[in-house]
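Recap from last week: sequence in, structure out.
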Amino acid sequence: MHFRYDPDDWRPAQGHSRLRATTSRLKPNSILVWDRQPYRLIEVRDRDEADWPQNYRDAWVKHGMPAPATWSYRPRVVVLRHDDQPQSKPLHLLCPDSTYWYVLPEHYWVCRTCQELPPCRHVHNEAVMDRAAERMEKEMAIMPGVCHGCREPISSRQKSFTFPGPNLIRPDLGDDSAIFHTRNDCAGSMKAYDERWAAAEEGRRRYFYCEGTKTLHHDGTGECTAPDCLAKGNLADWVEHKLWIQHHPRSGPEVQGCWCLAAAAA
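Predicted structure tokens:
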């Protein structure tokens, strides 16, 4: 699974990766962030299996019906009270055990005007709009035949890939105009566009992702379990796979039977 940082997502200015915890690791009296407000944790309770909502039951069956007491997605009740309103009615939230929460230090600050944890909605929305305007300016500078990733011209000697259909970044350039260098510096932009391109039409398959398992043999050759895998020719080095296995003499007993390791084991 890949996690991507999105600068437009809201996160408290006081928070960082070390100030996050899953529901299972929360400690009573901690200060958590809910709806951009500071809340004091009263307790975390298990939800009786007989009272699980239907969506949790369906997910439990889909995951192979694991032990309910240890299943990471099991529903739990998080009881909170607003930190500045100690007499207020507690808030009961139902969430998976694996949900991540922002945990604040005892000394935190809030916006004087909004009484929200910084950045407040006003400041955050302004920042999002500024980034959108900056992206728009850069996108409008893209010319025909220019890589949509690095924004540099693509020469006849350079390898590239063109996405068919409407251009999702510059529709005014016409169909079959979204082009990217097939090189390391542009791979991230190309694959991000690939996801966007596939999502633009129902049932459309990504070019640079395969649901199969790629096996890489000790001699450098390989194959995929998906018969229609697109990792061939010029695209072979750029297609990511859901799973991949690399055979090596020190890989372990599960791959020792492969023909590619016979010489290495001899």
